[in-house]
Each structure stands twice: as C-alpha cells, then as structure tokens.
Amino acid sequence: MSTDFYELLGVDRSATDDEIKKAYRRLARQYHPDANPGDAEAEARFKEISVAYETLRDPERRRRYDMFGPDGAPSGANAAGFGGFGGLNDLFDAFFGGGDAFGRGAGGGGPARGADAETVLELTLEEVVRGARRTIDVRLPVTCDACDGSGCAPGTHPQSCETCGGSGEVRQVRRSLIGQIVTAGPCPQCGGLGAVIPDPCTECRGDGRVLGPRTLEVEVPAGIDDGQRLRLSGRGPAAPRGGPPGDLYVTVRVAPHPDLERHGGDLHRAVRVSMVQAALGTEVDVDTFDGPQSVAIAAGTQHGLQQRLRGLGVPSLRNGRRGDLVLHVVVEVPTQLSAEETALLVQLAELRGERVEPARDGLFSRIKSAFNP
After folding, report:
1. What CA dihedral angle connects 61, 66, 71 and 75, to 10 degrees?
2. pTM value?
3. d(CA 348, CA 156)
4. What is the pLDDT of residues 92-151, one digit of tens each?
5. What is the radius of gyration, based on Cα positions, of the chain?
C-alpha cells in the first residue's frame, strides 16, 4: 500500500496514541462494511485504515514504519501470527537463528539495502505558511562511477561464492534433546551477498560506492511544524554493490519570527496602541503573510483584548485549512510627559473625579505654571 499511514488516518506524524485512536474510531464508523452494505470501495478503505491503525498503535511497529516505511512494519496476518511473529517461519527464525520450518534458508543472497541518513533543513515561518521548494546539499555514499556500483574492476564480473554456493548463507546441523536443529547465518566468505569480487574496483575498493556530494530538491508542504521529518524515499545513501539506496530523512527546524509566534494552526502577535488610541479608538495597519491588513481598534479597548483575523494563520497538513492570526492589544502608558501633556491628564482626572498624585514636586510647579501663566 503506497498511501502514507498517517495520511490515511488524517493525523500528523507527531500524533499521540489517543489522537491516533480517536481518528481510527471516527473513520471506522464511517467506512465500516455494516454501515456501507455492498460498497466495495468503503470496504477497501476500511481495510486500509485498519492496517494503518494496527501499525501505528504499536510503538515498535510505528518506530520501524517511521524509519523504513511499510516494508519495515509488517501488518495484518504477517504481523499478528504467534503473538507478534510473522508466522511459523519467523518463529523458527527467532529461536534457531535463521531458516524456516522446513529447513530452507531465510536469506536469498544479493546486495543489501542502503542505510538511512538524516539531515536538517532550516525554514522561516513564512515558508511554513506558504510551503516551499528547497535545495539541500548533503554528503553521502554515492554510486561509484568507475564500476557503476558493481564493485568490480572494468571488464570483470562477480563470481558465485564457493562457500555458500551463491545462497548468501551457510547452515549448520547440530543435535539437541529434541533432535536435529538446523541453523543458518550469513556466509562469512561473501558477507551474505552470495558473490565475491576477485578483481575489486580501485576507486571504491570493491564496495561499489564512494563518499560524495549530492544536491536534492525538497518539497516542503505548507503547515509543517518544527521538529517534524520529511522522508525522501530512495534518495539516501547508496548501498554496497548496487543494492537499493536507503532513505534520507529531513528534520525541519523553524527559525523564530521577530513578531509572530505559532500555536498550532494560529499565529499570535502583539499590536501596540497608546492609551489615548485605546480610549478614543483608531485604525492600525498590521503586516501579515497575505499583505497589510487594516484593523479597527474600538473606543474603550482594554489592554490584553484579542482580535482574530480569520484564515490568516498556518495551513493544516491534513486538510489545508488555515488557522487564524490572533492580535493581542497592548495598551502602552507613556513614561515621559511634557508639562502640557501632564496638565491635560490632570484636568481629565479632575473631570472624571479620579485622584492622581504626581510623583515629583517639580512636576506640580510646571502644572501650576501651565494653568496660571
């Protein structure tokens, strides 16, 4: 199944167990065959979300899925048999070190998959809101150009390993209280590849890869959060001797914004007005990622009042809907007043019957002078 399990359930990759459970229950009620009799599409959808839930609800299988994708987290019958073993063959493999119930080897030889790697991508908050296409430069094992990844010198080819006969594993038979036991393990001669290289490539020394720079294009979806990871499937380190490459995980780091803070899908910022503007009302221009917005501050606005500008926040990764821009009104009280400004405020206080006590005697003198020239 190529669809991402998190997308199937409609949750973020950082979702908690409770969030995953709630999402599954909601979808299960919607697509359950009993609620959709005769609907083959709904039945198929129900099976998909069930597989996704069974994988993500188990911490170990979820960890393997996050690291390796669906291939690293078997589901359904293969995952459930014998209390978590993938059936009878996995049970034998766990106890006897390889092989299946009928004595056949578990490995088939051939190049192994490349390892996974991780890098960090720095984003601005604006790139998070809008989405971005970024280019990253990484240094990873890449396919050797001299031998095209085979590990062999030009004009030569790998040869079947004589120790394991090309199977990549060797088996041993030993006696025990319950009879003969066949165990299997990687061939020590070829390292489990099933082939040896008599004439190694001089550039990569038979490994089929060298360390080199790579430039990759990364599509960053709008709404991604700090600490989340993107998986670039098959674009990680090259594997030895032509095996499939691993994955590259890109961890996102979002740089702090000087004026905005993100809380979920909402953006928060302070809007500063004077006490006179708060008392009489005014209009202020607020910069947003969608351009400047004119915001009315009503007369009598109090410090700490919140106003929401709908749809100017961060898009959701699940449905693309944007959160809000939340404005926090900060009423600023002046700390330095001229004699005329002080006199006017004192006069206002007298009109309102409010008691004020200027802190400095010199200030009283200036006030009296203003009233009695």
Report:
1. 30
2. 0.60
3. 98
4. 333 333 443 333 334 445 567 889 999 999 999 999 999 999 999 999 999 999 998 888
5. 34
